[in-house]
Known about the structure:
By secondary structure, the chain is α/β, with parallel strands linked by helices. The protein has 13 helices and 11 strands. The strands form 2 sheets. A 7-stranded mixed β-sheet has the order 6-7-5-8-9-11-10, sandwiched between helices. A 4-stranded parallel β-sheet has the order 2-1-3-4, with helices on both faces. α5 runs antiparallel to α6 (125-139). It starts with a helix and ends in a 21-residue tail after the last helix.
Amino acid sequence: MLDSYESSRRTASVADAAVLVALDFGERDHDDAVAEFRLLCSSAGLKEAALVSGKRNRPDPAYYAGSGKAKEIAAAVADSGAEVVVFNHILSPAQQRNLEGELKARVIDRTTLILDIFAQRAQSHEGKIQVELAQLRHLATRLVRGWTHLERQKGGIGLRGPGETQLETDRRLLGKRVKILSEKLDKLQRQREVQRRSRTRGRVFSVSLVGYTNAGKSTLFNSLTKAETYAADQLFATLDTTSRKIYLPEAGNVVVSDTVGFIRDLPHTLVAAFRATLEETIHADLLLHVVDSASPARLEQIEQVNGVLKEIGADAVPQVLIWNKIDLATGEGGARFSPGVERDEYDKISRVYLSARTREGMDFLRQALVEHAAAFAAAGANAQDPAADVDHASAVSVF
């Protein structure tokens, strides 16, 4: 990763104070969206100096928020001394440019904010490549200059073709960098495919944890596998897929994978860049869809996750809803959720109520895993294969 590129990637975290803009276009869950937006900004390291809101029927073509609201935002910037304005919306390049001219401050939209959080959190080599690729693809749509450092690193003079403007040169160099990163990801994807084939030959039942960001996937993963992956009460605490093997006496070895969380309006560039990682989800035998049962927007979050799963081609994978955080949640009428399971019309476990933090209900999750693994074996995928029963010593018995 380019050292001089690093400073340009950290777009949101360079300023302490920010004016937040969240407009209401008539969404049914606007208050929940604003609360999530504030948490996103906090996760990016920003301090809220002011929140500007308002209702509109449709975005303004020039300023998104309209010229009058733009003046209100400019006043909030002047009063607070904020250096950045963050929109909880996706801005066009022209809108962003017009707003920066009007507000005299750096303007970033929701996509850039999420990409910045990913840039701060990526730890693995693959994760960093994925984030940089997503940022480059997004910024390639921004009609701005800002990539001259790429030219300087390559020597500058002699790179420009006949009649090329500086912007054209920057775009060509940016495209070259995108090509290099894409090739690196393709190579990593091929390596992952080899590992997946090896696991398939071993006929090991594979389970992927999916869910909305901050639903408690990593906490559940740690509780399941006795791993020590990073888990925190913040958005996108986990970016890199982590896999561990556990052993169930009734079902044999099970590979459990923790994946990146989803969120509403997840940038398409990010989904595309993380497709190699998310393929772990596509090829899973079972998805544990972790839901924050304490969230008022839990039903909308389930819809958002299922939408992304459909986008990446994982909507056909069998799924069990894990209603997590029952120690903090209440149902209709204020009644508390109890540990347990619900079954579908085929008598299969379709929902498990538990708390990964307190481990209440973990026995019911074990029951669900055993039943689904047994169905997997009955279908012939785990038939008599010596490789299926080896390496128990490396698997963790957690129940």
